[in-house]
Design goal:
Elements lengths: L3 E10 L8 H20 L3 H5 L2 E8 L2 E8 L8 H20 L5 E12 L6 E2 L1 H14 L4 E3 L1 H17 L5 H8 L3 E4 L2 E4 L17 H25 L3 H26 L21
Parallel strand pairs: 4-6
Antiparallel strand pairs: 1-3, 1-4, 2-3, 4-5, 6-8, 7-8
Length: 280
């Protein structure tokens, strides 16, 4: 008994605590749980490879995701675990977003203790993932620990540099850019999936999720700006400004991803590259 190494993510739905209606808040939480349950029920490539396992703990409008090696695997490669885990978490995040909510989170790699048959989990990685969400992410994004992000980018660049010259571009297109950096914050580039023929378990397209979120954020901004015109309480105005910052950031992020969408018609699903196979 003791800690084991795993990729740990903490994800929180933003805005649900401001919902006063019991029925609406119940609907948001039920949908969140349902999407996670549906995603967990679908056999993914990660199951078929049999190398990786994942544990999801859900409470209220938050969840922890622990992505780790199967005990039967003798050779464990931390970089491959992190790479496949980031892609898995990005797909799960898209499923949550498909319910037309916005999320924020944190991801790290490190020591964690957890039990599969009950909600007992703790460790430095659990604490760090939460801190990344609450202190670093700020806007609707999933912040990634600086150490694993920089190591990931360096390893990815080394991998591409070592590939045959005629394969470098296709590898770049297929693997994409799962990590993005803004100022000193690294975060999960969820909508990099716009560049891939990604099929979610729910059947919804990534393009549809993006468009729905743009509509949600634009309507929220319009409503909050109207509220500001009649609101006199300074604390309420301050909270409204924070909400506007979050939704404006999300709009800019998604619109930039749509504009920069690449032609990935050469997308391949095989054992070497791609979202639906173990990533090298």
């Amino acid at each position: 008994m003791g800690y084991s190494k795993a990729l740990v993510a903490f994800i929180d739905i933003l805005g649900s605590k401001q919902i006063n209606s019991f029925d609406l808040r119940l609907s948001v939480n039920m949908s969140f749980h349902t999407e996670l349950e549906k995603f967990m029920d679908v056999e993914t490539v990660f199951d078929s490879i049999k190398k990786y396992e994942r544990q999801v703990y859900v409470f209220s409008d938050c969840c922890y995701i622990i992505f780790y090696y199967n005990d039967a695997v003798s050779h464990k490669d931390d970089f491959k675990l992190i790479k496949n885990g980031l892609h898995y978490i990005s797909l799960l995040a898209l499923e949550i977003l498909s319910n037309n909510v916005i999320i924020r989170g944190g991801i790290t790699f490190g020591d964690v203790y957890f039990e599969k048959d009950r909600s007992l989990f703790f460790g430095p990685a659990i604490d760090c993932a939460y801190q990344l969400e609450s202190k670093v992410a700020v806007v609707p994004r999933i912040a990634i620990d600086e150490k694993i992000a920089s190591d990931y980018i360096r390893n990815e660049n080394d991998f591409i540099d070592s590939a045959p010259e005629n394969q470098k571009e296709i590898i770049k297109k297929i693997n994409g850019d799962i990590i993005e950096q803004e100022n000193d914050v690294y975060y999960l580039n969820i909508f990099d999936h716009l560049n891939k023929q990604t099929i979610l378990p729910s059947g919804i397209s990534v393009e549809e999720i993006a468009e729905n979120l743009l509509t949600l954020s634009k309507k929220t901004i319009e409503a909050k700006n109207e509220e500001k015109c009649v609101e006199v309480d300074a604390n309420t105005i301050n909270e409204t400004e924070k909400i506007l910052i979050k939704h404006n950031w999300l709009i800019n992020y998604i619109e930039n991803k749509i504009k920069s969408k690449k032609d990935c018609s050469l997308f391949l699903c095989n054992e070497d590259y791609g979202i639906f196979a173990e990533l090298s």
